[in-house]
From TrEMBL:
Described purpose of this protein according to its UniProt entry: Required for rescue of stalled ribosomes mediated by trans-translation. Binds to transfer-messenger RNA (tmRNA), required for stable association of tmRNA with ribosomes. tmRNA and SmpB together mimic tRNA shape, replacing the anticodon stem-loop with SmpB. tmRNA is encoded by the ssrA gene; the 2 termini fold to resemble tRNA(Ala) and it encodes a 'tag peptide', a short internal open reading frame. During trans-translation Ala-aminoacylated tmRNA acts like a tRNA, entering the A-site of stalled ribosomes, displacing the stalled mRNA.
Localisation: Cytoplasm
Tagged with keyword Cytoplasm: yes
Ranges that cross the membrane: none
Gene name in the database record: smpB
Protein name (database record): SsrA-binding protein
């Protein structure tokens, strides 16, 4: 690096609110999309506090529209009588060709559309959704075994480097 040159920060501009960690364990992710999400005011305030759960969430495609269902955004504790219901359907904002592609692929056997994470990007709420194929039980065990083998290999390499 040249004298006087500054390191550039490689920070992600996304403020992640919720991750669906179980999704990568239960599904093989085939394609990922970023979608806007239509929210009410109290939902946005609850998300800014970092409160949401994507665990049981899924995307329902109906008549050219995408809907996020079963995602839990708890009520805003300072909200009044116009507070939102925690598990209501929320419309996703995607391009028409993306919706058609998702709809065609999701009708194939074993495919579904699931949310991976919920975040803010430039002040707007976004959800990362994925076209996914469900894993069988033996696939899950094999994935866990591979992760454990990789960890053990890294541990052995670190131990070997310390001895050298």
């Amino acid at each position: 690096m040249a004298k006087g040159a500054k390191k550039q920060k490689s920070e992600d501009p996304r403020k992640v609110v919720a991750n669906n960690k179980k999704a990568r364990h239960d599904y093989v992710i085939e394609d990922v999309f970023e979608a806007g999400i239509v929210l009410w005011g109290t939902e946005v305030k609850a998300l800014r506090e970092g409160r949401a759960s994507l665990v049981d969430g899924y995307v329902h495609l109906d008549r050219g529209e995408a809907w996020l269902e079963a995602v839990h955004i708890p009520e805003y504790f300072q909200g009044t009588w116009n507070n939102h219901s925690p598990r209501r359907k929320r419309k996703l904002l995607l391009h028409k060709d993306e919706i058609l592609r998702l709809e065609a692929r999701s009708h194939e056997k074993g495919h579904t559309v699931i949310p991976l994470r919920l975040y803010f990007l430039d002040g707007r709420a976004k959800v990362e959704i994925a076209l996914a194929r469900g894993k069988k039980e033996y696939d899950k065990r094999q994935t866990l075994r591979e992760q454990q083998d990789n960890r053990e290999a890294l541990r052995a390499m670190r131990h070997h480097e310390k001895l050298s």
